[in-house]
């Protein structure tokens, strides 16, 4: 995924870019609001997420966010030391998709990046909207939050759907327990681990595909992409 990092501190940007690169992101660094806006040309930008620091040298970060939203639908995550509720609400009202307060945990930041990118509706080259994830016999319809296996609809709870949609985002990739808890339950790991295990077990049972979600001992879970006849 291409990511636009808007950060005027070169040392912070370099360290964060290195971390993001290790997690598979192609990072473009903009040092000011104007650089960010120049990079976000709708027909060519191709960015999956904008990570926007609010303390910019040339423009107020909130103002930049508003301009970005008028220019493109690319998800924006604000990063700032301003932790008060009013500042968060103001940022969200301007069109930000999420808000991360400094100092932040890198794992949480990565989880939030994946979360906003997953919620985004992408358009393919023909202009059609891709809103369905297909994994062998499993079909996940994102707008209607409907899941079916071999054509038969499976009734899932909200959290079960969110969990499945998260894992289906990157089949074969291991999601850490802490990351899953952060994205699906919007809370910390402590006291929620058993809830995650129960939801995984429920998904395996409801989908009649016990091998679909693999436990990676000591780390987390990953989705094993099934064949078209994988349900049974």
UniProtKB/TrEMBL annotation:
Gene Ontology cellular component terms for the protein in this record: cytosol; protein-DNA complex
Cross-referenced CDD domains: REC_OmpR, trans_reg_C
Alphabetic keyword roster: DNA-binding, Phosphoprotein, Transcription, Transcription regulation, Two-component regulatory system
Keyword Calcium (UniProt): no
Domain OmpR/PhoB-type residue range list: 130-225
Cross-referenced SMART domains: REC, Trans_reg_C
Xref: InterPro entries: CheY-like_superfamily, OmpR/PhoB-type_DNA-bd, Sig_transdc_resp-reg_receiver, WalR-like, WH-like_DNA-bd_sf
Domain Response regulatory span(s) in chain numbering: 2-117
Signal peptide: none
SUPFAM superfamilies linked: CheY-like (SSF52172)
GO molecular function terms noted in the UniProt entry: phosphorelay response regulator activity; transcription cis-regulatory region binding
Pfam family, one: Trans_reg_C
Segments of the chain annotated as binding DNA: 130-225
Annotated positions of the 4-aspartylphosphate modification: 53
GO biological process: regulation of DNA-templated transcription
The protein, known as: Sensory transduction protein RegX3
